[in-house]
């Protein structure tokens, strides 16, 4: 059976509420950080009041968890957030689904500072049920001992929880010109490979540049993306279809 990849236009919470329970095997979210970023609809769209933003976060996380399978409990939820939001999102996530790991998404460099240490990472929360899909052989990497030709090396190992995920800069060949924030594709591919199987469904409440949809197509996974910007939906779907 051929996998399908579709992006739906609309508010993510409204769209998810229309989806049936257990519609997804994995959810990945790189949500808006409420920092006034213009996602094509004006900076005010990403600048809620504190209480409104807290309710928004709780609502989309709750809907995400509802859409994961619960019998058997094989689903997983991955959430990428900034340093400033990590504490609040981490607490909220633990209210809904057990934490399996917390990964440092190392971006190599950030906006230079003189008054503090420069921020060079984000937090990738990996929450999953006890029976979650886990494919370690699909993501093994060369160990340090292997790289050194050490005879004690036992073969490729599962990656650690600090991932080198460099920023996708403007001159990067994989970057599309129409979206302000884009993610490191190899790190996303690792997530899909380790926590889903071919034919599974990946849900992305904030599809953005649609790179995850492209990866799902490459790996034979179904993909449901959601975005509130109709232009991103159109261009993202075109990107997936052309992949």
CATH topology title? Rossmann fold
Mean pLDDT: 91
Shape: globular
How many domains in all? Answer: 1
Q: What order do the strands of the largest sheet run in, or round the barrel if closed?
A: 1-8-7-2-3-5-4-6
What is the CATH superfamily?
A: Vaccinia Virus protein VP39
CATH class: Alpha Beta
Radius of gyration: 18 Å
How would you sum up the major sheet? Answer: 8 strands, mixed
- Structural class, judged by helices and strands? alpha/beta
Structure report:
It is a single chain. With 243 residues, this protein is α/β, with parallel strands linked by helices. It has one domain: Rossmann fold (3-Layer(aba) Sandwich), CATH 3.40.50.150. 30% of the residues lie in helices and 18% in strands. The chain is built from 7 helices and 8 strands. Strands 1-8-7-2-3-5-4-6 form an 8-stranded mixed sheet, with helices on both faces. Helix 6 links the parallel strand 7 and strand 8. The protein is globular and about 55 Å long. The two termini are 18 Å apart.
Give a concise summary:
This protein is 30% helix and 18% strand.
Quick tags:
243 residues, alpha/beta, Rossmann fold, eight-stranded mixed sheet, 7 helices, 30% helix, 18% strand
What's the helix and strand layout?
Elements: E1 5-9, H1 12-18, E2 26-29, H2 50-66, E3 76-81, H3 86-96, E4 99-106, E5 121-128, H4 144-147, E6 162-164, H5 185-195, E7 201-204, H6 211-219, E8 222-227, H7 230-242
Parallel strand pairs: 1-8, 2-3, 2-7, 4-6, 7-8
Antiparallel strand pairs: 3-5, 4-5
Helix pairs in contact: 1-2, 2-3, 5-6, 6-7
């Amino acid at each position: 059976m051929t996998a399908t990849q579709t992006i739906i236009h609309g508010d993510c919470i409204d769209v998810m509420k229309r989806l049936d329970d257990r519609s997804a095997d994995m959810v990945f979210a790189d949500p808006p950080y409420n920092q006034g970023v213009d996602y094509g609809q004006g900076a005010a769209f990403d600048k809620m009041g504190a209480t409104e933003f807290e309710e928004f976060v709780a609502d989309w996380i709750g809907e995400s968890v509802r859409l994961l399978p619960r019998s058997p409990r094989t689903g997983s939820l991955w959430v990428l957030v900034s340093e400033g939001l990590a504490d609040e999102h981490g607490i909220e996530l633990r209210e809904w689904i057990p934490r399996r790991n917390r990964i440092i998404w190392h971006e190599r460099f950030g906006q230079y500072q003189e008054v503090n240490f420069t921020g060079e990472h984000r937090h990738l929360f990996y929450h999953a049920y006890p029976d979650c899909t886990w494919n370690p052989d699909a993501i093994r990497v060369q160990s340090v001992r292997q790289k050194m030709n050490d005879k004690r090396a036992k073969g490729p190992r599962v990656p650690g929880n600090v991932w080198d995920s460099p920023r996708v800069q403007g001159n990067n060949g994989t970057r599309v010109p129409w979206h302000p924030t884009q993610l490191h594709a190899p790190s996303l591919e690792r997530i899909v490979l380790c926590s889903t199987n071919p034919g599974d469904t990946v849900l992305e409440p904030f599809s953005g540049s649609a790179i995850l949809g492209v990866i799902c197509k490459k790996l034979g996974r179904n993909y449901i993306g959601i975005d509130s910007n109709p232009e991103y939906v159109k261009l993202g779907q075109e990107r997936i279809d052309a992949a």
